[in-house]
Every structure is written in C-alpha cells, then in structure tokens.
Amino acid sequence: MSRVKSYSMSCPISRSLDLLGNRWALHVLRELHAGPASFAQIKAGLPGIASNMLSARLSELCEAGLIAKSHRLYTLTDLGLSTRGILFELARFGRNQPEPSSPTDPEGVSHRAAILAGAIERAAGPLDDIRAEILLDGTPFSLIVAGGRVALQAGPLPLAPVQIAFDWSDVEAVARGDQRVANFAAEREITAEDPLQVAALLDLLQKAMDIYGGFK
Residue 1 pLDDT more than 60? Predict the structure, then answer.
C-alpha cells in the first residue's frame, strides 16, 4: 500500500491524519456517505482525480478498515461511517471560506447528501422516529431516523410515509437565515399520509439547517 509517511505521534489528531490525511481520501469517504458506489460512480463525484490515484485511495481505505468492497461496490464500514461528523465540521468551516476562481461541481449530489446527513445527525434526538424520501435537487434519498441514529442513502424509500422535494439552494438559504424550512416547504411538493410525520420532518430539517448555518 502506497501511503504518506506516518506522523508517528501520540496526538489523536496526528493519528487521524495518518488514516485520512492523504489527498482525496476524505473526498472518497464523502461520496460513500450517500451509500454504496462503484468505482465509476465515485470517480464521477471527484472531478480531476486520476484513475490510478482513486485506485490507490480505495486500496488504502480498504486496508485501513474504513471501507469494504463487495461485488464491485464500495461501502463504508462502521469505522468509515464514524467520519460523518468530521466531514460535516469541514463543510461548516468551508462554507464561510472564499470559493475558487473557477470552481468545478461534482456530478450528482452525493457530496451535498453527506453534508445534509451530518446536519440531521447533529439535530436528531433519541426519540425522533422518521421515515421519509427526500428529493434533493431531483435525486431521491431515503431518510431513516431512529434512536438517535441517521441513515440517508441514495435511492427511493419504498412506501415512504413522507416525500418532500427541495434544492440545495433552499438549504443554503435556510442556513443563511434568509428563510425557514416551513416557507420553502409550503412552495414545494410534499406527499404524506401522516401530518405528524410531516411536522416532525420539517422540524428536524429546520434544526439541521440551523446547525449547518451555525445558528445552533
């Protein structure tokens, strides 16, 4: 395995960087927080990465126990899933930094789903019990919140009690304090059988976007 030289320090930050500090490593994990993905799907979300570089990162992350490969799909292990909070804090810090002069956007919305999942995880309480399908920028994601644990994975949720559609621009507007979730929800399509599930979902999304914006 080709890795950068270990820091060989007892500091927990250094030990984290020994696993996550290689170029593109955190980006690969970011893509997989939206669910299992093939090599091609991961590469599509990482514009600019060379195939040999991606192969190296995937091999390293597999050996480190952060991801696993099965039937040509890569998925996060429990250790890999535990990086969600790290990625979310990087997103919170980065949203207030200047953008590059010529930024490129990844294909798909996996990178945005990872941020939203991190925010929802911070906002969810132990008694929250929500099953919903979220159409984020037109892409379906299944959201399951139970016992303080959050799963947000690409793909529709069969028999979803609630379905809501919104764009990432709505998330950013709420995070800036320009609008409330209830405002854009009133203008967006919501399909639901249980009004209580709708209210619980909207409340959780508001808390999550407030956390992302630094209001909580």
Answer: no
Assign 4 a pLDDT band (cuts: 50, 70, 90). Answer: low
Residue 97 DSSP symbol: S
How is residue 32 written in tokens?
A: 């997989």
Q: What is the DSSP letter of 46?
A: S
Q: Note the residue count of the chain.
A: 216
| Sequence-distant (≥ 6) Cβ neighbours of residue 154 within 8 angstroms | 34, 35, 110, 113, 139, 140, 141
Please, where are the H alpha helices in 21-100? Answer: 25-32, 39-44, 51-63, 78-81, 84-94
Burial of 29: CB neighbours in 10 Å, binned 0-12, 13-18, 19+: buried
Tell me the Cα Rg of the chain.
18
**pLDDT band per the 50, 70, 90 thresholds, residue 72:** very high
Burial 95-124, CB ≥16 within 10 A → b, else e? eeeeeeeeeeebebbbbbbbbbbbbbbbbb
Rounded to whole angstroms, how far apart are CA atoms 12 and 166?
38
